[in-house]
Amino acid sequence: MHYESNVREPLILGDKSYKDITVDVARPVETAAPKAWWIVFSISLVMFLWGVGCILYTIGTGIGVWGLNKTVGWAWDITNFVWWVGIGHAGTLISAVLLLFRQKWRMAINRSAEAMTIFSVIQAGLFPLIHMGRIWMGYWVFPFPNQYGSLWVNFNSPLLWDVFAISTYLTVSTVFWYTGLIPDFAMIRDRAINPVQKHIYKILSFGWGGKAKAWQRFEEVSLVLAGLATPLVLSVHTIVSMDFATSVIPGWHTTIFPPYFVAGAIFSGFAMVQTLLLIVRKIFKMEAYITIQHIEMMNIVIMVTGSIVGVAYITELFIAWYSGVEYEQYAFLNRATGPYWWAYWSMMTCNVFSPQFMWFKKLRTNLIFTFLISIVVNIGMWFERFVIIVTSLHRDYLPSSWSMFSPTFVDIGIFIGTIGFFFVLFLLYARTFPVIAQAELKTILKSSGESQKKHHDPHGAH
Amino acid sequence: MVSFGDDFLSAASAQQLTKAYADRRTPGKGMLRHIQVESNLSLSGANADKRVKIKPSEVGSALAYLYNEVSGGSVAVGTLSDAVKSALKGIAKELTAAKGHSIVLVGGNSGANAHLAAAVNAALGNVGNTLRVDQPIYLRSGNDRAFNNAMADMQAGSVGTIVLVGANPAYNRPGFAEAVSKATYSLSLCDRLDETASLTSAAAPVPHYLESWADYTPNTTDLAVAQPTIRPLFNSKPAVEVLGALTGEKQSAKDWVKNTVSGFGLSWSQTLHDGGASVNNAASISVSETASKALAGASAAAEQASSVKGGDFELALYEKTVGAGFQSNNPWLHELPDPISRAAWDNYMTISAKDALALGIVNETQSNGALNGSLVTIKAGDFTLENVPALVQPGQAQGTVGLAVGYGRSAAGRVADSLGVNAFELNLANGFGTVTITVQEGEHEFASTQLGNTMMGRKIVNEVTLANFMADPSGASWNEKPTFHTMDGVKTSNEANLWANHDHETMHMWNMSIDLNSCTGCGACVIACHMENNVPVVGKDEIRNFRDMHWLRIDRYYSSDMTDARAEEENLGAIDKYAAMEVPGESPEVVFQPVMCQHCNHAPCETVCPVGATVHSREGLNHMAYNRCIGTRYCANNCPYKVRRFNWFNYQKNERFTGVNPAQDDFGRMVLNPDVTVRARGVMEKCTMCIQRIQYGKLEAKKAGQPVADGAFTTACAQACDTGAITFGDVNTAGSSVQVAKNDARSYHLLEEVGTQPSVFYQTKVRNRA
Q: B53: part of which helix (H) or strand (E)?
């Protein structure tokens, strides 16, 4: 007698066979791009080129073309940097942490989540580069042997820690992502008819043959890389937060920052994954793989991390009051009621209030509502970084130096440019890469058993 | 000392008076008490212990009233409000108590007012004691009557030839342009084709003062001799040679100077070597005769003063950073923010907040923090001045407005032309008059360098009253140092320490003391620093963007009517309290605080630089290695004092600075100091404590085989300070003046609670009030 507990919903819907999965995943690569793709790609490309123009203008003329001043030395540049790094966090969390925890539902989304991670870390990495007054000397941040009298970097500086944190993160994420891609590239190679295409995928798949030994090594490498990547989920944003936490500026000098930043990063990362996958799912007809269950799971993560962030905000206010330090108290009072109150309350509304709707199952399984909230969360997380950076700097210790910040067209242009660049990369990826880790996904397909069950027990009752 | 509208700390006499003023303001027994009675908030008014607001037309009556009070006389007194009268009664009481060692000053150009002030001084027995009539100051002396006569003669067509030397009446005297056209021939001896020179029949260039021989007698005791420091760059002739040739005494400028020196019976080579000599040139003016004349004429002067008509609005002209306009093509002077309003590159009508509200004049902060203001038209009699920006000025007497002269030049050069409005066009001969003000369409963009005008209840400038200072010489009650409660008990900021300490005993330890009591806020140090350190001039737009490059700035704070104590009394919440604290009071007390790099010994900037471009020296300085800097600006963000300046553009090449930055052409570059690097775009810069002077001084001492002597060299700011407010030196040298200052009960560190352990410290300001 065969007993089966049916508590878990199946992760792949629609009675897919192994062949169906292969065809579905390879379809975007093998067929011509739809019109919608071309439209979105063209818009993204224009945004990207506009951003390139603004970056070149900055490098050619000076940082003065931005809206910064002697008091507010960082604004949109570092806001965007932290925002993009934060978005990158979901990818590693989904692919590495959830792999270690054997969360099989990650398999349908990890490829795109990781792609998003890499593309957003690329955007993030741009900002520390272009925010330098002398970008052509930027390589001095690396500790390399030199003939300048053996000048060394300053290991006390959190900016230097950033250099290591971000480059490590980008490297490990890319290797992890690429390792997973190898069998899937091989699948596309095997199906390719066009010889040029076949040749390219042949190179990309590193001669994958699909032997049992190869699969065993593949699994082991995945596990090792997951183990390596997991601490990075915590470390990268911890280190980014230290740019602020180790400083002396009221509103920056806050010990709560590392956990608070990590939670915020996962929060914004999942929101961005949600935004992207809802589009991918629709355009490439992946509803069978990226199911409502996936959406719901991610919404729960958003709700939980959003609430953690909310607790952090309130803790900050409490500690500012409890510290008895007048500068600290004023910094937080100024955030909520000063000239940038609108930024603070946008942040509060978007990040703390809006995810609370996810307590309702009806709302967290509603695709349109989810899509809206995912956008709102990322707007809120952008404001969070703006609030931390600008409202702390603009009114610090000496009122004589207080100022305000207003972005110029260049500030805005560069930010728009990175959004364009991100989508250019993601759209190219969606047309040329297998957007779902099909080889992994096939391991959770309950093919024969499922169909048998349906055949014998159409009501699914035991 | 009571000053009626005389801004003696920034006027012509400032160089003579500032040092004496500061010396007599040394805290302790017999510290000078200073009362200022005025309409505009002047630099002197800002330094006063007590300030009384008055309309300019009331000054004569107020002096007459004061005269009656101190002398028991009964000269005519015009209408005065009860508030002014009671203030004057108090002043009279204080003056009477200080008979013979008080002084009353008066500003403006009114003869009647001057006479009344003399009468008050005579009645107080000050003439001959504090008022040395035998020691006049000759700087910028003039003769209105003679000039008016000359104008009348020219207009009548009875002037054949006129020669103008170093004067620009076409700019500062309405009607001169027409008058000079009636002369048969006119010649201007000038350094540029200015407003006057472009009207005269001929203009002859004179050399720059650094290219010429000259002698100066600014007062009765000093003779200064100037010799050229450079060959004349252009084909020019000194004015004295031209005038000599015209009068038939043809000799070189050098010979003229020689004659002056020998006229005093001095040795030429010795005087030239010393750069000058002390002479006795006292005027033979009888003290008793002056005093009795002053008293005798008081009644007539009071009669005249009481007939002066007031109005709803009265304008008092004043001079700010560019003076009367002769130096107005000098970009350093425009870049220096006004010490009071902190607005640069402009003149504007100052008006009280209440009057501004009544007239519909608006001052608004834009989203980038910059200030915009309404434009007004000012009418004085038949003369009208349009497009005058209006700036709300705390401390401005109600019913009065102020406007600085020296702006609105049309032929001064690329920097000054079309900057501001020309207040001389209003033709106010006495410096004040009744005006009507109408608000115009349009907005003006100010270049204001300070957005936060009050201290927000923070201990930034430490103050104490003279009485409390005398009562507790240790400073324990008025100069409390921050302490920290740690697990190991209460600690000072030096003890509650996260870092390893630098060794600051073995070598030099350069420290600086800034005495907030002697600092008058004049800004000479800022200009000196600008010159010494090749600080770029960035112009109005960039100042407006809060990107001034000054390594040294003078913060000005107004007191607010809201204080922590008052908030507690009124049970006010923190939000309301801080909102009210941001607003300066209507009659605020003013403090000035020069702030440059504090050279922290635990510097927040040093730890955050990823490439180690800013590092600590063994001598207590915070160094900046420009060529290592990659420009992340992290150091500037993490500086609690916000003294770091970033090179946002290539100021030496970028076209948008051609109009203002002297370093963009060959002649302008002559002002650059060859001992100091001109910084590249994209790097951070800041005060170095004139490291080039320190190095030079150390090398000189080494060559001489001597230890570095205290006072052998000093920083540019300390050198420029008339009042000696800035003391620089090695705190490890026993008995050095900076060591003495460091151990003074008044000394404190700015933001000591942050634990930065600065090498710069401040001396508490002492206010001479009850």
A: strand B50-53
